Amino acid sequence: MRLPEPYKIKMVEPIHLLPKEERKKRLQAAGLNVFALKAEDVFIDLLTDSGTNAMSDNQWSGMMIGDESYAGCRNFYHLQDTVKDVFGYNYVVPTHQGRGAENSFFSILIKPGQYVIGNMHFDTTEAHIHLKKGIPVNLVIDDAFDTSKYHPFKGNVDLDKLEHFIDEKGAENIAFMLITITCNTAGGQPVSMENIREVSRICKEHKIPVYIDAARFAENAYFIKTREEGYADKSIAEIVKEMFSYAEGFTMSAKKDALVNIGGMIGIKDNEELYNRVREINISFEGFPTYGGLAGRDLEAIARGLKEVLDIDYLRARIGQVEYLGKMLTDAGIPIQTPVGGHAVFVNAGKFLPHIDHEQFPGEALAAELYLESGVRAVEIGTCMMGRDAEGKNIIAPMELMRLTIPRRVYTDNHMNYVAESLINIYNRRDNVRGLKFAYEPPILRHFLAKFEWA
Ligand code: F0G
Description:
Blueprint: H1 20-29, E1 44-45, H2 57-63, H3 74-87, E2 91-95, H4 98-109, E3 115-118, H5 123-131, E4 135-138, H6 159-169, E5 174-180, H7 193-205, E6 210-213, H8 217-227, H9 236-245, E7 249-253, E8 264-268, H10 272-285, H11 296-308, H12 312-331, E9 344-348, H13 349-352, H14 362-374, E10 376-377, E11 379-381, H15 383-386, E12 401-405, H16 413-427, E13 436-440, H17 446-449, E14 451-454
Parallel strand pairs: 1-10, 3-4, 3-5, 5-6, 6-7
Antiparallel strand pairs: 2-8, 7-8, 9-12, 11-12, 13-14
Helix pairs in contact: 1-14, 2-11, 3-11, 4-5, 4-10, 8-9, 12-16, 14-16
This protein binds ligand F0G.
Ligand F0G is lined by residues 48, 50, 97-99, 122, 124-125, 180, 184, 213, 215, 253, 255, 264.
């Protein structure tokens, strides 16, 4: 039997479903781009799991004891102790969010022309690698791109590809390895402990430092516990410690698995010199090293969230809910990335709408249709998001996905039922969903501010 959530609801926030005619007007005013909708025009918001978490009473009470001193606030020391305890790392530098951590850390780590290898970098990660004149390289296993194939750890680094890449380019031309857990871009897919261990071993042999993009570290640990041999009897806390023992440091968007609404950090295991360099550079970008762009109360909420997220009952309910939504969709024949990831169901919009060409953005078209049908907001992860190459051609995404991203502790299974029913309604009349074309195409990061018309 599936156990319910290990918490009850103490405060609610009303949401409203606009009538269909009104939704149509608002979507048209938004240029058919769900990013341009006002949040209050959305009924169920599955745009992202980032910063959309519901905090606990324990976290809210921690907000009240925020120490808002410029330097040395007590909440920083609580966070530092927590990072030591949870990850086994000596040092932490707070940042305002994940990309702030990427900006500061990568400024130190990347020399122009160097490669930054990983399973599959997130888009802000890739952008920051480019900004430092590095070259991002994705070495995820090929199975990640076959949405219908079951693989328990589709976020794994392909070890053959890794060895070949190092041999071909030379270790001295590789700045570092970044393992993203779970791998968002591949569909919230986990990386196995064995893979993290092997990647670390290979990189160590070549003196390539290994870092972790830790945004969804606890969800990754849950998958290791439930899917990997030898870990069923280990606690999430033990698994997390082992995962991080194979790396030298991490960047983290706290907006995911720290169960807060804003924040980020850089963690460093034991390299004091690196820590000092990070602290220095971070002052210009994020602020003094004991606050890093955050209020004392935010640091307290993060420290408390990092502990709460290790609760196995919480993780079982959390990922169970994502699986519950995924199962309703697969039972109806809707193609999704299988198995479902930790934070989202990734619908294969390319297969859902085979009559819509890549360059008419099936993921965007499906997201627009879903809003019209139901007031639910999802997000495209596909060719629109990929942008254009140096010659100005659309970079065709390996998978045209629409992500139904589930905020943590926010929605109930009834909300999931409604989302599934709405999408199934569209699936039953999918032939009449139309593709999109640009009415306005921004030069960079076009998916955020683009305007579309029906093709
Ligand atoms: N790394 C990963 C794996 C992420 O998923 C994100 C953000 C970041 C880094 C950047 O962190 O937003 O705090 O600056 N992902 C969000 C998403 C935005 O919707 O998937 P940030």
